[in-house]
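Retro notes - structure team

What went well: the batch runner handled both jobs without manual restarts.
What didn't: labels got mixed up in the shared folder, which is why I'm recording both outputs here explicitly, each with its sequence directly above its tokens.

Job 1
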Amino acid sequence: MLDKENIKLGIAPIGWTNDDLPELGREITFEQCISEMALAGFTGCEIGNKFPKDPAILHSYLDIRGLQVASAWFSSYLTTAPYKETEQAFLVHRDFLYAMGAKVIVVSEQGKSIQGQPDVSIMQNKPTFNQQEWELLTTGLEKLGALAQQKDMRIVYHHHMGTGIQTVSEIDRLMAETDKGLVSLLFDCGHLYFAGEDYLAVLKKHANRIHHVHLKDVRDEVLTLVKHEQLSFLDAVKAGIYTVPGDGQIDFEPIFKELATMNYKGWCIVEAEQDPAKANPFKYAKIARSYIANLTGI
């Protein structure tokens, strides 16, 4: 059983408003989003583009709702741009999260990524890195990890559909070629399931590197459509590929059991990018919270 003292439950704002698809949830305010997060029973969140960028202002909204900032996404371009450009943006991001009390920084390499390209099939055009790009990525991530350590923080790498780190073998290589003291891993079963990969194998093999968890479910009928129609990642999201735990194909009981076995300590973040016009975000937040409570007692 998961230890309630070790686990914090949060939810991402991407179910209310989508940063990559701003037309989704355009009408939903920041205040509605965070109020419904708290009402659904979550104590933390990640950050979206509608969130205030001033830490003092953001604290004033979140504190009274009992919400903490768990982390926020950072796009690195270590394989395609000079390192210094990524470093400068990272330091601003790090310092903002530090001011919000976060302990982890979600990093995903977006060099060569197709996840934001609306007309490119997500199943057919996955990017890969050559040897030089792998070296740029691993050395760059270690540098970012050292910068995070300056603030007693850590980076957690987010494997993601449509990027150069998507498969089990790519995750394995990334972990093997980076310093475990500098580069940690974010575990996201939804992205691994979408990619056709063994998510439990990743969880078990890299238990000592996992310091952040995204809880994301997948609708099989939409996955079949994505493959048949060769949809892009963004079109897959609009079609409803992702949903909250308890509403899709993934059985989360073995995942929670493995997290308990490895004595996981940290945030578990419900993250399900959906069209809020089709999937009411408050309703689905409640579905997720109830499902997690029934499985874990948390």
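Job 2
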Amino acid sequence: MTRLAVMWVHGVEIADDRFADTSMDLLRAEFTRIAGVDADEALVLRTAFWAPVYERRQDKLLRRMGGQQAEGVFDVLDALGGATDRGSVTALLGLVASGLVRSLPGSPGFHFPTLRWLVVHYLGDAISYQAGAVDRTLYDRVHKVLARSLHDLATEAGDDAPVCVLAHSLGSVVASNFFYDLQATEGLHPDGSAGVAPEVAAELGDTPAERGETLGWLYTLGSPLALFAQRHPDFGTPITVPHPELDRLHPHVGGEWVNVWDPDDVIAAPIRPLNDAYARACVEDRAVAVGPWWLGWTPLVHPFYWNDVRVIRPIATQLAMAWHRLQEAPAHVTAG
């Protein structure tokens, strides 16, 4: 039985390796219902938990800024942030309420600790990651995490298993860059790009899946890709989804890049209008209202994408159709 490989790539403010637990459970349930087959038999699921690459530096910075008295507060904020990414509205409201606190006992000059925590995590991750344009050390360490996850997926699902990626927030930029580097290494984007660094390549085996040749589905959720594209002339060149090799390896399995965004999410934006290349690469900028109804009209919807059935159900539908095509493929090829 051919299985599908699915990877979750998180964004900023994550400090919990269980960040995708709720989303995974939701995808399993929707896939099982739609496909009529147990998701655990058809899918292999993995996360790419890259937060630890920056976490120690950010914690050190916060403690130097806020003093020893703030250490416990930041631990609580980390816990609330992790619960929020698993879909907890209560945790999100706790974060919002804590944002009203102006100062901490013992740290009178450290005003609005929650907002500073958010700035260090949100801007800190983005600034540190994009420093890869000058110094690739941290950039490559993040990509090593994705490489290990892709290797694990190929090992369990199969060397040529079709790959689906769900990438949220800054994670969509990370996933795009990672697969772009793979495609540049294989000559799909011969524009002088450096491609995959040796230390990243060392995490990957020589299989179609690990060369990125089976990338079939990319779902960018609440993505700031449009903002990051400003660094390039005419907003740059997108990755190719699905990879051209996928149809040779698994004819007619399909594939798509869909950019899911909520118009109330100020971090997210459509990407198809960036240029003709993005319009061809991404089949849809899908506007979806995410989060609970009483919160869905605010920018606080940003953490809710992959915990929302309105986002996951269309993804599960695509994967269910792809899985059935894969099971039918051998007989179809023989008959042809």
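One thing worth noting from job 2: The two ends are 21 Å apart (CA to CA).
We'll revisit the folder naming next retro.
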